[in-house]
Every structure is written in structure tokens, then in C-alpha cells.
């Protein structure tokens, strides 16, 4: 095995001996599974044990386990539920599924034993599974957690998304610069999925709309698309805890209506004959194509409509088969829109009800607004999608007509209630005319949903007072809060079996089923013996991560040092740059006083920048160049090390999170909706350094302010400071340490071959600093030195770490799903 392969395998390897719901391992069960794996290897893969590769063993094992999932799936589908949840998300960052399936079925040790008898190591088999990179970060991982929790709670649900051929790109670093390559997770097929050709729908684009009179005074409109694309369903089963319930993740693949234009092909235009196919298949080719061009914008709109339309057609057909009357749709279906990407569901559901099923406008609108729910995930204006009206009229002409009518009726209603002045109407209109006409998809989702929810208490309050302030005033009951959560099966049981074993010993095996019992760990947080074992668990995970870091980057790190971790999508508001600048300042401080008793620290970064996000890529380059200088300087050896791990993924997160001592959650207050990495890290005992932003506030409230390091302005302070002139210049002038760090970066110390490389970063901070790095820097430095002091008191540190684990029980996605089910979807749990 190559070094790169070993590095990717490490997350699976450190899961050896993982805790599982299995009570005993039956010899018959082991023999049965062993024979099933051998049979799949022979008859499905076409290999013998002698010539099978690890990828073949993975596929055979997955297929053998899939058979057992299907049995549970059939049990789940034997009766029609009273109400079903349909979860529409452009992202499902599911990662590797083998460990989830084994764990939730209670077959970890049985599978390990069966493979051992075949001379195969389970860790190697797990490592052979490619990550399904069907998401960009928190949004997609949240959707995956929610699907697993719904299955575990026996909430009938179907997730809908896109089966991207390549998903999010594979990141490499060439001399510190991010390079993107296609993620080929489907290169050898996906043994978990079932192709459902019978569930294929036509999705239209372009064309024109005609009218016809069906009766006196009743006019019907008919859309005649210029292009149609086939959406073919591929189902991935989602098995819940202990295999009691199985739901389905249905992913759509785009195909051309005709695979080849035979006349053009036979005429000699062999490439042109495939142009239609290439255009259609581009829809499900790559997650988030760059929208820096007009063509890229159109492709994104096509992606969003493609999966939304196919999903709505599918669920409407299912409802008609089960109930026979669409007027009862809201009673038996809850459709959740995960962010604004599927907001086109509002006019699309209206279109289906009006045109395909002949309902009148009033009935269709009543059904739509009582069936749809909308989760908002961002307050950033650039992330609240808007589409040029011209683009919408060209790509989806019928939908633009429906949006105009929804908007007209909406604005007419405001006039009836005395809210008819131009400024008020402009603020709540679905069409933004301030910089050319654009459709506000967030406003559209808001109007079309029965409930709109934020994902943390702060985020929800800010929704009411900022982006949806005027819409909220029209319906003050519509916005509700549902703080995010994470599945403990993946992020504790699977990712950290040693910690799970400690929890079972301390509070009993029931903790596997009831996360709330983790609170019992607080009783042993001060116990020296438990602290020692907790510290040993962390040290073991840090040693494993150190191997991964060395194999992936060539950088050697000391497992006894404090592991300071920031792993998330690279974005200016998440402020990786603040962390890098503090690293430079710390480097300068150590250089100035090398004999001081500095706290050994390893700074670990991970995350991808969007391909067209120039500033984010430059931040990655700065982090890598700082690492190159710091790691080569003998004056700081053993005191400060910096590593940027390429190609951050779910599997890599499973290796990093249990090894983290400090969790960096340092976004500008008021800009991070919630975060879920903060929950995963705190659950595994990392102490958080962060701003009062997103779910950090609720984490502080649960773990206690003495067990978290808070710094910086709060959301109100951020707004007040941004209103002041020249706040960045004033902050830099008031901080000699910050000024020295910026001067060193600007001087070319970290880029001697190109001294001006990072001047755009420094200039932006001096004259713009939209995310207030300069304003928060000194308090961030203070908080980091408080971290140093805390680390040097091991008894207090491990007590705080244990209390973090104990008090994170509330952040289970099971709790989140119960709240959605009871208060938004009105569906029975269990």
C-alpha cells in the first residue's frame, strides 16, 4: 500500500475495536456472513478470494450487508405511513457508508470476524470505500445526519438530491496552491445503490407557454418545453439505529431523452451528435459548477430545478397512488426545503397542481403553503440566491409567470392592509429591482412555506430582524428556531470508539440508545482515574492523527503538544485568516523570546475553497507558506508547528475530530448560522475557542462559560463597529502586535520569491476588513494565551474536556428531528 493510501486508510484503522450494539457474536452469524461475502465476491464482483483487491472485498461486504438492510427496508415499507417527510437538499455529504451500516445493524464485530476468517482486515476494507462527496460542508453533512436520525427515530422519510458523477472536487496542494481535480467516487460503481428505471421523470427547460379555455372564465396555461431531460432515480438505503427502520435517499441522475442524434452521427458529425447528451448529463456531472460565468449560472439553475421537479413529480405520483386525491397532500406529506436551492419548489408544485392535476389557484396555493417548509442557513446576502429575471424567463418561462402572479397577489394583499407605500412593497416583493430585476429565492421560499426555521437561536433572531425583517412583520408566527444537531452514531460511536467505551463504563450501555445519558459523565469529570483514562484515549487518537499528518504532508508533529484545529470550508467570514495572522504573531513572539516556557502547539487546518474564490485560495496559500517558514525555523522547533491537510472530507474529519484539543469556531459574530463542526469537536472533548456566533452561544450555555474560550464582539457589537468610519485602521494602530504581523506578511517574509503575493490580503484588512479581523485580533490573542494557561493545568483541562462531552447531549440530531417532527412537520415519531 502507498503512503497516500495509508493516509486515507487511517480513519478506518483507528476504529479497530469499535463499540457496537452487538451483545454477543454468534458463530453461526459469522459463518453466514462470511459465506455471503464470498458469494457476492464471486457472483456479483466476479473475483475469487485469491485475486480480490481491497476494493473488491469492500464491494462484496457492502452487498452482503445491503441484503440485510433490504430485509429491514421491506419491513419499513409494508404499511403506508399516515404522513411522510420529503427532504429536498442539493447536498448530502454522506461520506463512507460501510461503518454506518455495520454499526447501526449491530454487525461490526460479526463483520470483522467474518473477514478475519477470510484473511482480510476490516480496517483495510473500510478504507477502500470512496467518500461520497455529494456536499460542500456543513449543509450536506447536516442533511446526512438528519436522514440517519429520521431513520433511527422511525420517521418515514425520503431524501431527495442529485447523484453527482464527481461531487465536490478533490483538492491537492501544489506548492501551497489549491488545485482541483474531479472526485471519481463512482469510478467503480456504488454497491449501496439501487437503480430505479421505473422512477424516471421528464424535466423541461425553455420553450413557450400557450393558453386555452377549458370553460367559461377558466383559462389554462400549457408549458411546451424546448428541451426535456430524463431524471433517473438511484436509491441508497439509510438504515437507522439497531436496524429498526430504513428510509431512502433518492438521488437523481440526468440523462438525455435520446442518447445520440443518429441522423447527425450517420452524417459524419460524430461529436455534434452527442451534444444534446452532454448538455443533459452536465446537470448531474459536478456539484456546484462555478457560477462566475453566465453559462455557469444557468447550469446551477438547471441543477436546482432538475432535482426539485423530479422530486415533486415523484412524491405527487406516490401520494396519488396511495391516497388518490391531491387535496389531502398536506395531511400526508411534509416537504422540507434545505436552504434556498430547492426554493423553485414553490412555483413547480403550483404548476403541477394547476396544469397536471387541474386544481384552481386557491386550492393549489393552500396545498402548497401547507405542505412546504423552508430551512434558512445563511444571513449573507450573497448566499441568499437571486436569479436574473431574464434568465428565469428563458429557462423556466412558466415558472416566471407563476412567480409574477404569486407576487402580484402578495403585494395586492399588502395594499389592502395599508402597507402599500413603495418602500414597503419593494422590501417584501419577490422581485428585487435595485440592480436589475432579480428573483429573490429566499423571499419565494418564505411566502410558499408554512414554517420557516433558523438553525440556532441567534441565527433565528437575526432572521427576524435582518434578512426577513419585513416579511416577518407580515406573519410573526412563521419563523421558528430549530437548532442543528449531529448524529452521535457517526460522530461518537464510529469516530471515537475509545471514548464511547469510556462512556459505557461510566454511565452504562444505555447511553448508546439515549444520548441524554451522557450527562452522567459529569459525575466522574473530577475523578483522577477517569481523567487519566480520558487523557490516554485522546493521546492515542492524537498519535494516529500525527501519522496521517506526516503521511499526507511530510510534517512531523508531536502528539504531546496542544492540537489546535480549524477544519471547515475556506471562507473569509469563517476567518481562517485570523487564525493564520495569530500564528504569525505567535511565531514572532517565540522568535523574540525563545527561552520562554512556551506551550507547545500544533496548528492544524483543513478545508476547501470554491474554485472561483480567489481570496480564499490566497488564504490557503498564506497558511501553507507560513507553515513552510515556521516548521523550518529551529528557534520555534517543538513550540509551534503548522500543517494544512489537503482534501478535507468526512473520513478525514473522523480522524481529526477525536484528536483535537482546541476547536476553532471564530467566525464574525452574526454571520455563521449554526455550525455543526463545533458540536462534533465539543462532543469529542475539544474545548472551543470562539465568538458568540451561531450555535457557539448554545454550546456555551450547555457546557458552561468556564469550559469554553469566548472572545470578540457579539453580533450587536459587530453591527455597531461596522458603522464606525475607519475601524480597521484604528484597530491596527491600537495593536502593535497585529501591525507587526501584518508588516511581516506584507514584507514578503513568507513569499520571498514573490514579495507582493499577500499584499492584497493586507491591503484589504487595512482599508476594508468586512469581517472585523483587525477589531477582534487582540481579544483573540488574549483568549489564545488563556488556552495556553489552561493547557498547562492538566487536571482542570481534562475536567473541562469531560464536561464538554457530558453536556453536549442536547446537540444530538435526534433531538433536532423530534422538534421538526412535532412542531413543523406534524408527523409521528416512532
UniProtKB/TrEMBL annotation:
It is an enzyme of class 2 (transferase). Its cofactor is pyridoxal 5'-phosphate. CDD domains: GT35_Glycogen_Phosphorylase (cd04300). Residues 1-21 are annotated as: Disordered. InterPro entries: Glycg_phsphrylas (IPR011833), Glyco_trans_35 (IPR000811), Pyridoxal_P_attach_site (IPR035090). GO terms for molecular function: 1,4-alpha-oligoglucan phosphorylase activity. Its EC number is 2.4.1.1. Belongs to the glycogen phosphorylase family. Phosphorylase is an important allosteric enzyme in carbohydrate metabolism. Enzymes from different sources differ in their regulatory mechanisms and in their natural substrates. However, all known phosphorylases share catalytic and structural properties. This is Alpha-1,4 glucan phosphorylase. It comes from Methylobacterium goesingense.
Amino acid at each position: 500500500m502507498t503512503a497516500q493510501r495509508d493516509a486515507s486508510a487511517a480513519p478506518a484503522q483507528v476504529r479497530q475495536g469499535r463499540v457496537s450494539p452487538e451483545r454477543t457474536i454468534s458463530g453461526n452469524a459469522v459463518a453466514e456472513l462470511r459465506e455471503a461475502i464470498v458469494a457476492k465476491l464471486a457472483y456479483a464482483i466476479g473475483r475469487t478470494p485469491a485475486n480480490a483487491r481491497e476494493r473488491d472485498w469492500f464491494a462484496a461486504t457492502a452487498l452482503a450487508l445491503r441484503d440485510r438492510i433490504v430485509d429491514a427496508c421491506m419491513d419499513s415499507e409494508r404499511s403506508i405511513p399516515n404522513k411522510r417527510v420529503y427532504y429536498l437538499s442539493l447536498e448530502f455529504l454522506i461520506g463512507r457508508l460501510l461503518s454506518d451500516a455495520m454499526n447501526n445493524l449491530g454487525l461490526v464485530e460479526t463483520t470483522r470476524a467474518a473477514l478475519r476468517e477470510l484473511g482480510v482486515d476490516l480496517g483495510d476494507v473500510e478504507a477502500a470505500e470512496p467518500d461520497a462527496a455529494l456536499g460542500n460542508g456543513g449543509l450536506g453533512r447536516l442533511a446526512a445526519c438528519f436522514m440517519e436520525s429520521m431513520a433511527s427515530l422511525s420517521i418515514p422519510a425520503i431524501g431527495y438530491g442529485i447523484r453527482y458523477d464527481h461531487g465536490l472536487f478533490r483538492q491537492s496542494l501544489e506548492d501551497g496552491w489549491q488545485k482541483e481535480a474531479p472526485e471519481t467516487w463512482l469510478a467503480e460503481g456504488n454497491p449501496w445503490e439501487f437503480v430505479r428505471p421505473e422512477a424516471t421523470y421528464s424535466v423541461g427547460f425553455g420553450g413557450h407557454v400557450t393558453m386555452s379555455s377549458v370553460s367559461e372564465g377558466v383559462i389554462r396555461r400549457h408549458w411546451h418545453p424546448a428541451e426535456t431531460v430524463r431524471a433517473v432515480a438511484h436509491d441508497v438505503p439509510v438504515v437507522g439505529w439497531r436496524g429498526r427502520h430504513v428510509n431512502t435517499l433518492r438521488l437523481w441522475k440526468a440523462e438525455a431523452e435520446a442518447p445520440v442524434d443518429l441522423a447527425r452521427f450517420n452524417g459524419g458529425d460524430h461529436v455534434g451528435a452527442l451534444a444534446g447528451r452532454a448538455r443533459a448529463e452536465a446537470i448531474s456531472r459536478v456539484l456546484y459548477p462555478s457560477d462566475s460565468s453566465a453559462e455557469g449560472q444557468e447550469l446551477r439553475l438547471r441543477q436546482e430545478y432538475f432535482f426539485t421537479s423530479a422530486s415533486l413529480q415523484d412524491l405527487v405520483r406516490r401520494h396519488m397512488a396511495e391516497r388518490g386525491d391531491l387535496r389531502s397532500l398536506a395531511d400526508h406529506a411534509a416537504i422540507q426545503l434545505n436552504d434556498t436551492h430547492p426554493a423553485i419548489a414553490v412555483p413547480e408544485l403550483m404548476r403541477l397542481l394547476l396544469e397536471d392535476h387541474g386544481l384552481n389557484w386557491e386550492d393549489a396555493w393552500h396545498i402548497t403553503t401547507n405542505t412546504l417548509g423552508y430551512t434558512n442557513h445563511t444571513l449573507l446576502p450573497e448566499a441568499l440566491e437571486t436569479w436574473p429575471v431574464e434568465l428565469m424567463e428563458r429557462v423556466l418561462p412558466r415558472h416566471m409567470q407563476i412567480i409574477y402572479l404569486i407576487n402580484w397577489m402578495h403585494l395586492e394583499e399588502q395594499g389592502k392592509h395599508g402597507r402599500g407605500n413603495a418602500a414597503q412593497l419593494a422590501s417584501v416583493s419577490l422581485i428585487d429591482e435595485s440592480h436589475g430585476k432579480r428573483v429573490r429565492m429566499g423571499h419565494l421560499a418564505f411566502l410558499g412555506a408554512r414554517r420557516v426555521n433558523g438553525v440556532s437561536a441567534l441565527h433565528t433572531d437575526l432572521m427576524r430582524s435582518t434578512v426577513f425583517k419585513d416579511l416577518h412583520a407580515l406573519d410573526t408566527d412563521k419563523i421558528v428556531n430549530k437548532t442543528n444537531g449531529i448524529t452521535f452514531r457517526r460522530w461518537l460511536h464510529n469516530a471515537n470508539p475509545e471514548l464511547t467505551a469510556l462512556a459505557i463504563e461510566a454511565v452504562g450501555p444505555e447511553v448508546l440508545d439515549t444520548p441524554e445519558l451522557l450527562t452522567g459523565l459529569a459525575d466522574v469529570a473530577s475523578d483522577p482515574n477517569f481523567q487519566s483514562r480520558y487523557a490516554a484515549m485522546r493521546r492515542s487518537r492524537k498519535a494516529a492523527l500525527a501519522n496521517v499528518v506526516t503521511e499526507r504532508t511530510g510534517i512531523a508533529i508531536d502528539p504531546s503538544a496542544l492540537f489546535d484545529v480549524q477544519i471547515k470550508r475556506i471562507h473569509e467570514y469563517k476567518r481562517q485568516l485570523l487564525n493564520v495572522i495569530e500564528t504569525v504573531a505567535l511565531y514572532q513572539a517565540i522568535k523574540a523570546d525563545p527561552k520562554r516556557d512556551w506551550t507547545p502547539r500544533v496548528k492544524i487546518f483543513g478545508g476547501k475553497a470554491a474554485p472561483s474564490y480567489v481570496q480564499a485560495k490566497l488564504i490557503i496559500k498564506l497558511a501553507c507558506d507560513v507553515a513552510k517558514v515556521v516548521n523550518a525555523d529551529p528557534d520555534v522547533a517543538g513550540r509551534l508547528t503548522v500543517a494544512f491537510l489537503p482534501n478535507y472530507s468526512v473520513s478525514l474529519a473522523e480522524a481529526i475530530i477525536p484528536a483535537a484539543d482546541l476547536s476553532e469556531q471564530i467566525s464574525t459574530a452574526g454571520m455563521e448560522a449554526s455550525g455543526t463542526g463545533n458540536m462534533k469537536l465539543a462532543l469529542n472533548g475539544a474545548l472551543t475557542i470562539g465568538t458568540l456566533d451561531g450555535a457557539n452561544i448554545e454550546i456555551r450555555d450547555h457546557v458552561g462559560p468556564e469550559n469554553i474560550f469566548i472572545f470578540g464582539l457579539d453580533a450587536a457589537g459587530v453591527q455597531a463597529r461596522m458603522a464606525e468610519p475607519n475601524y480597521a485602521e484604528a484597530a491596527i494602530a491600537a495593536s502593535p502586535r497585529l501591525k507587526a504581523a501584518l508588516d511581516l506578511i506584507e514584507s514578503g517574509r513568507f513569499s520571498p520569491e514573490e514579495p507582493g503575493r499577500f499584499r492584497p490580503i493586507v491591503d484589504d484588512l487595512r482599508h476594508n476588513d468586512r469581517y472585523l479581523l483587525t477589531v477582534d485580533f487582540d481579544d483573540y490573542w488574549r483568549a489564545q494565551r488563556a488556552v495556553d494557561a489552561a493547557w498547562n493545568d492538566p487536571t482542570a483541562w481534562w475536567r473541562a474536556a469531560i464536561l464538554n462531552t457530558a453536556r453536549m447531549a442536547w446537540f444530538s440530531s435526534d433531538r433536532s428531528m423530534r422538534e421538526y417532527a412535532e412542531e413543523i412537520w406534524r408527523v409521528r415519531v416512532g
